[in-house]
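Dear Dr. H.,

I hope your travels went smoothly. While you were away I took the liberty of generating a structure for the chain from your last submission, since the lab meeting agenda had it listed for discussion. I wanted you to have the full record in hand beforehand rather than looking at slides cold. The sequence, exactly as received, is reproduced here:
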Amino acid sequence: MSQDHVYIYRDAMADFYIAMAHARQHQHEKAIAFLNAGIHLWESGAPKPGKDDLEQFEDWIFCDLARREAVDQVSTVNGRR
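The corresponding predicted structure, in token form, is as follows:
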């Protein structure tokens, strides 16, 4: 696995979990900022299923699950759902 993907998974997941923590603390602006940072990192650098080799797909799955949960929590707390 390339080192770049390791850092993307690590950094994006950190942003997603920090976004969820801020959402639970009702710190909406911080939650959205971390969520957007994680999504940008994820979309710009993570391998794409069907296009790229996922190599260790478990890391991709964990990161995608964290992204989905963060989007759900931040949007729920911010009254978007």
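Two observations you may find useful: The helical segments are 3-24, 28-45, 57-77. The CA atoms of residues 17 and 77 lie 14 Å apart.

With kind regards,
E. W.
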